[in-house]
Design a protein that fits this description.
This protein is α/β, with parallel strands linked by helices. Helices cover 45% and strands 15% of the residues. The longest helix is centred in the middle third of the chain and has 29 residues. The protein starts with 10 loop residues before the first strand and ends in a 7-residue tail after the last strand.
Length: 255
């Protein structure tokens, strides 16, 4: 892993860090000396990831958090401030995706549409709003939104998911203009089809091969392909990068 020594002693909140990409991000922050806050709705998986970090010699704090609930988000942030004394980075990773059924948009139940947007869009808004006072006091902060490379491809049959991840790009650009004077950067990364321990019943082996065939780099994308960019955007080296949407999809969206 590259040198991210500027992150040592920092506190990074990663939402949805009980599994998948969030788990990988939390462990990566801890590995470079930051305290990883696992803000996760499932307290069992949150505790498991915290235990992994601690066993590896890192620092972690697991907090049961529902990003769609303003009160839960506020409690989480207050606990982080009380126990850690600072908040340097927020990674808005929590989202609904792997459990979604692929279907034409006119068949998506309204309740499902509302839930996806509530978690995937309102959740990052609530979390960013909650960490803002601490970052402003420090005169520095990093907000990293986890979008999706599927936005660039216009992937069909996931309209609520694609809509929600597209919204994060606009949110980041607008938020970046509001917060630049406070020393706070806001960026979005757009991962490609990244295969983690989370089961995805909607992706067959044949579909996986088709996804890989679209990429310039002809292999499956893994969480390790993303952690470097997240750490970079959180570091001092990225202090002048804000309002950007960065494709990390192995060139799948390359013209």
């Amino acid at each position: 892993m590259s040198d991210f020594s500027s992150l040592a002693g920092h506190v990074a909140i990663v939402t949805g860090a009980g599994q998948g990409l969030g788990r990988a991000f939390a462990k990566a922050f801890a590995k470079v000396g930051a305290t990883a806050v696992i803000a996760e709705r499932n307290k069992i998986t949150a505790a498991a990831v915290a235990a992994e970090v601690l066993q590896a010699g890192g620092k972690a704090l697991a907090i049961e958090t529902d990003v769609a609930d303003p009160a839960s988000v506020e409690r989480m942030v207050q606990m982080v401030e009380d126990q850690c004394g600072r908040i340097d980075t927020l990674v808005n990773n929590a989202g609904i995706f792997s459990t979604l059924e692929m279907r034409p948009f006119e068949q998506i139940p309204l309740a499902e549409w509302d839930r996806v947007l509530r978690v995937n869009v309102t959740g990052p808004f609530l979390c960013a709003r909650a960490v803002l006072p601490a970052m402003r006091r420090a005169g520095r902060g990093r907000i990293i939104n986890i979008g999706s490379g599927a936005v660039s491809l216009g992937r069909p049959n996931y309209l609520h998911y694609i809509t929600s991840k597209s919204a994060l790009v606009g949110m980041s650009r607008s938020m970046a203009r509001e917060l630049g004077a406070d020393g706070i950067t806001v960026n979005t990364i757009l991962p490609g089809a990244t295969f983690t321990e989370i089961e995805r019943k909607t992706v067959t082996p044949e579909q996986k091969l088709k996804i890989i065939a679209m990429q310039c780099i002809p292999r499956a994308e893994t969480p390790d392909d993303l952690v470097g960019s997240v750490l970079f955007l959180a570091s001092d080296a990225a202090a002048f990068i804000t309002g950007q949407a960065i494709n990390l999809d192995g060139g799948a969206a390359h013209p």
